[in-house]
Design goal:
Residues 9-18 have a biased composition (Polar residues). InterPro entries: Alpha/beta_knot_MTases (IPR029028), RNA_MeTrfase_TrmJ/LasT (IPR004384), SpoU_MeTrfase (IPR001537), tRNA_m1G_MTases_N (IPR029026). This is RNA methyltransferase. This protein is of the alpha/beta class and 294 residues long. The chain folds into two domains: 11-183, Alpha/beta knot (3-Layer(aba) Sandwich); 195-289, no CATH class. The chain has eleven helices and eight strands. A six-stranded parallel beta sheet has the order 4-3-2-6-5-7, sandwiched between helices. α4 links the parallel β5 (91-95) and β6 (128-132). α8 runs parallel beside α10 (237-263). The radius of gyration is 31 Å and the shape is elongated.
């Protein structure tokens, strides 16, 4: 499947670090996961992938198939390194699903969530490596003991272990404010419609309730509910004008129907004597079920 190019609209992200983290995968067992991690790196502005004792990654193989556009740069430029080289060169963050509960299990405690790690890394400029372990058993205690920090993704306690590619994607997403300079999302703020137009919409809604013979003692409540809904929604100018058109047309038709009924001596629109249009029985039932004072 071909991939669409990034959109033209761009949104400036938060202040990225001048030095991007590198991503290290220790003894990956599945080439597809290496490709997935490379793709996630490309998505979130990272390019330096390092692999400890990786499997073969042929260009026509699974890793390149999963890498998307990262097959053009991140994956072919991946460097094979040793674990010793990583711990001696970088400030290291080990990623694991299994954590300690207190300081008695110090190898896996204390730990940071991805959001907490983002906050921590944002306060310091240092070469950082995000270290992921094997698909089958992750990083072992000896390896974690050599790393500077531990990070764990919160998940359901019944099954907290994420797929390697998924874990990398979640972590890199959380760190995006440190690594991505511009997003693809358009740099457009949502603008609420002018208050005069919003107020006119409230007037049209009130007229609609009146034309529809909504019971008068319930009308104020409906108008208040409608005001609360619009207050939370912050409707745009287009949304408000669309609703104005709908209520204007509804009010015109109800008014015309009433004029015709009056001209020919018939009951008003909706059936029944004036003031008791269709739906009145439902409103009476609604009153009976509603214990709140009017």
């Amino acid at each position: 499947m071909s991939e669409p190019d990034a959109g033209s609209g761009e949104t400036t992200a938060s202040q990225p670090r001048s030095t991007d983290p590198v991503v290290v995968v220790v003894e990956p067992e599945t080439p597809g996961n290496v490709g997935t991690i490379a793709r996630a790196m490309k998505n979130f502005g990272l390019s330096d992938l390092k692999l400890v004792d990786p499997p073969e990654l042929p260009e026509d193989g699974e890793a390149y198939g999963f890498a998307g556009h990262a097959r053009q740069d991140v994956l072919p430029n991946a460097e094979t390194v040793t674990f010793e080289e990583v711990v001696s060169t970088y400030h290291t963050v080990g990623c694991t699903a299994i954590t300690g509960e207190d300081a008695r299990r110090h190898v896996r405690y204390p730990f940071s969530t991805p959001a907490e790690l983002r906050q921590s890394l944002s306060t310091v400029e240092t070469q950082t490596a995000l270290v992921f372990g094997r698909e089958s058993k992750g990083l072992n205690n000896d390896e974690l003991a050599r790393l500077d920090q531990v990070c764990s993704i919160p998940a359901d306690e019944e099954y907290p272990v994420l797929n390697l590619g998924q874990a990398a994607t979640v972590l890199l997403y959380e760190l995006r404010e440190l690594t991505v300079e511009e997003y693809q999302l358009p740099d457009v703020e949502r603008e609420r419609a002018p208050e005069g137009d919003v107020e006119r919409l409230h007037e049209y809604f009130g007229e609609f309730l009146e034309h529809a013979d909504h019971r008068e003692h319930r009308r104020d409540r409906c108008e208040t509910l409608f005001r609360r809904v619009l207050g939370r929604a912050h409707p745009t100018d287009r949304e408000v004008h669309t609703l104005l058109g709908v209520f204007r047309k509804a009010n015109d038709k109800l008014s015309y129907a009433d004029d015709l009924a009056e001209r020919y001596g018939e009951s008003r629109f909706g059936g029944g004597p004036e003031g008791t249009r269709g739906g009145d029985d439902h409103e009476r039932a609604e009153d009976a079920d509603d214990p709140r004072p009017e």
